[in-house]
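Task: sequence design from structure.
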């Protein structure tokens, strides 16, 4: 079985978690219809405080459901939408994708991967110790992030749990994901 959408989530107000929905509508160049983070300019509070005019490279947050399985092995209980993601996936290595990869979700929607999510302290407020499981250092000392990827909407459309996800990699040398 190929990659699929496991859940979709959105919230019209600033909140760490996002309730699951039967479907979400992605709007070209904006994000998830009705979600607090939708827009052409950055919407995350920390980034707005730095520069409210920077482009919104974080319109749609995706997280791999396999992370929840991994966290469960360490005693954490996390479900789709609870870490603020809009689209929870199954069967795709989101963290291994290059910058610029296109994800076709369902029949119409297309997302372009812009980078890694760098999680904030709210993760530890949600469940103490969780931050160390999604941000850490590997054996060489390099920082790693496992809290999903960010994207922009290149083509809008409705997305539902169970929708197929097809990946189109960019041409040329691939650029690894960095935080956005």
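Answer:
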């Amino acid at each position: 079985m190929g990659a699929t959408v496991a859940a979709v989530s959105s919230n019209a107000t600033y909140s760490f978690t996002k309730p699951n929905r039967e479907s979400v509508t992605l709007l070209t160049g904006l994000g998830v219809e009705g979600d607090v983070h939708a827009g052409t300019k950055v919407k995350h509070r920390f980034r707005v405080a730095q520069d409210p005019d920077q482009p919104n490279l974080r319109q749609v947050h995706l997280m791999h459901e396999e992370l929840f399985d991994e966290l469960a092995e360490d005693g954490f209980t996390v479900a789709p939408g609870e870490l603020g993601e809009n689209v929870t996936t199954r069967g795709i290595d989101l963290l291994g994708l290059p910058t610029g990869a296109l994800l076709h979700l369902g029949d119409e929607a297309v997302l372009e991967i812009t980078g890694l999510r760098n999680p904030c302290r709210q993760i530890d407020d949600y469940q103490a110790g969780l931050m160390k499981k999604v941000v850490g250092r590997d054996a060489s000392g390099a920082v790693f992030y496992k809290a999903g990827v960010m994207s922009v909407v290149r083509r809008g459309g409705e997305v539902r749990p169970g929708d197929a996800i097809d990946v189109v990699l960019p041409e040329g040398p691939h650029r690894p994901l960095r935080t956005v």
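The first helix runs from residue 45 to 50.
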